[in-house]
Amino acid sequence: MPRVDYDRELRSLQDDLLMLGSMVEKAITKAVDALKRRDIETSKQVINEDDAIDDLRFKLEDKCVEIIATQQPIAKDLRVVFSILHMAVELERMGDYAEGIAKISIMIGQEPPLKPLIDIPIMADKAVALLRRSLNAFLNRDVEEAKRICKDDDDVDNIYDQVYRELLLFMIQDPKTIQRATYLLWVAHDLERTADRATNIAERVVYMVTGKMAETNSKYMA
Hints:
Blueprint: H1 3-37, H2 40-71, H3 75-108, H4 119-140, H5 143-173, H6 178-210
Helix pairs in contact: 1-2, 1-3, 1-4, 2-3, 3-6, 4-5, 4-6, 5-6
């Protein structure tokens, strides 16, 4: 394959990854907004739309395998392909978190809220911002921004710790709140993990550009 066609394939791969990131970002925002508004129909839409996220992830994987098998990229190009492959998995898992939040919203149904949903939407906004920044760092090959993203994940962790303590206090003071508090804990946990995976993408940006794999401030999850 001529180099110009090869470069076109790599750009197509990058474009697909950015499209996947956009789909995941919308899914997370939509799921949390539906939870806040008690919008069951929108929650069902998020669940149904997760199939499209899965499909694009598998399409990306197939493209990566094809490029590796047919073009045998080396050095920097190989790092780009492997990094995109890894990032696609991270994004698909974030999509699963959005789907999980939508399912929790359906389980909560029309029950009265245990507490006003203030901290959780803030967590969602910060997690989505980290995701958007990590993809921009990928697009711009911006190592310094990627390193900043890994440090900024602490903001989401701090809010999660606050939400955890507050909901735990609800459960201790009134055991009847345990189920509703647990639902919100699951949501907060999914958002905290979303932010972690955004930092995983940022770490991959550092590796992709520098060739050095260094774990900074994120947690790798199963």
